[in-house]
Amino acid sequence: MKESALCPRLSKAMELVGKRWTALIIYQLLEGPQRFNAIESALPISGRLLSERLKELEKEGIVERKVFSEVPIRVEYNLTEKGQSLEQTVREIENWAKSWL
Amino acid sequence: MKESALCPRLSKAMELVGKRWTALIIYQLLEGPQRFNAIESALPISGRLLSERLKELEKEGIVERKVFSEVPIRVEYNLTEKGQSLEQTVREIENWAKSWL
DNA sequence: TTTATAGATTACGAAAAGTAAGTAGCTTAC
DNA sequence: GTAAGCTACTTACTTTTCGTAATCTATAAA
Question: How many independent structural domains does chain B possess?
């Protein structure tokens, strides 16, 4: 990849938000904690990629994973404070969509 | 791709903004009209992809392309009204980056 | 005729995404 | 006790997109 004078924080934010499915997953989690299957059903994403993205978002401290040892097992995902702070960003995309698409 | 109950306008907006380089190109064009080489130098993107993205954005009515038949040729890109309207979205990403990264 | 410049386009290997089938751990039904 | 079902993944494989570098087009000056 080419180097540039671009601010690394902005660059990273753009990579995060501008990664396929990331913003939609956050949008979905703004509704509240949800389990894997619920997210998968709400979005046109496959389980394979949802699993991958949730791991990435967990590593970034944006999403939190909670395992409930019930039968069958239950796993819930919710936004951390850092994740919640992306609400305005995602809402802006939503507003733009309403006005211009 | 899986189908879902997701609002198609939101879905499209997410695909646009959440496509690699798109938001950064718009961010760059917020500075004003710029030529191809200027954008390429400002961002860590290759000419091949920049060309591809600019065509997509032009097709979406977000970016306008102006050719000046000088020697050597000069081509400038600028945001349309629709493109300008994405400023708040891009600024939100920028703000989030400043606060959380 | 060669060189230079800007803005692309093409070729090709590498990486990421899409699809479908399979796995693990535990439960209930037969 | 074994077969089937549930959730949350994971693996294998194909298709699409990306990244890098070389090439093309048009024009003009050296």
Answer: 1
